[in-house]
Amino acid sequence: MMSDLDQLYQDLILDHYKRPRNSGCLPHADRRAEGHNPLCGDHVTVFLKVRDNVVEEVTFQGSGCAISTASASMMTEILKGRTLEEAKRIFEKFHALVTGSAAEQDAGADLGKLEVFSSICRYPVRVKCATLAWHTFKAAAERQAAPVSTE
Questions:
Q1: pLDDT band for position 30 (50/70/90)?
Q2: Contact 79, 59 (CB under 8 A)
């Protein structure tokens, strides 16, 4: 039987999957990167507008499973308005959360709604779905030319 918290988490992920925030091309982006998960076919392009080391705008475009799309949607919400250094720290905390390498008491610290992905570490194949947009964001922020692959 699903707990109320599990149901809430599932509902939040489904909401971001069905109605992704900040989805679409960003025509005046000054950074972008592409990412692909060959295992399941998820594909994402992340677009950034950075000014004075702050993420002014971030959008994504692509196709993927519910976990991948919801993660990308929620990522754009939490990273908009952050400095690139803050974004890097949030990426590291999120990655530790979904891979299960975060200390239990720190697992969701400062991640807000992203804590809904805390159970992903029990499904290793889904970790790549949850982190694809994040790795792609990092590549865009660092102006890496090569596409990101989860393999």
A1: very high
A2: no
Phi/psi at 2 (nearest 5 deg)? -80, 130
What tokens appear for 5 in the block?
Answer: 């918290």
DSSP 25: -
Distance, in Å, from the CA atom of 120 to the CA atom of 122, rounded to the nearest integer, reads: 5
C-alpha distances out from residue 43 to 33, 72, 134, Å? 11, 11, 12
What residue ranges define each of the domains in the chain, with the CATH number in brackets?
Answer: 4-149 (3.90.1010.10)
Q: DSSP states of 41-76 as a string?
A: TEEEEEEEEEETTEEEEEEEEEE--HHHHHHHHHHH
| Residue 121 contacts residue 98 (beta carbons within 8 Å) | yes
Instruction: Name the pTM for this structure.
Output: 0.92
Give the whole-angstrom CA distance, residue 119 versus residue 6. 9
Among 102, 100, 150, which Cα is nearest to 129's?
Answer: 150
Q: What are phi and psi of 128, to 5 degrees?
A: -65, -35
- Which amino acid does the sequence have at 83? T
**Sign for the pseudo-dihedral over CA of 122, 85, 12, 49:** negative
What's the rounded Cα separation, in Å, for the pair 89 and 70?
Answer: 20
Q: Is the pLDDT of residue 1 over 70?
A: no
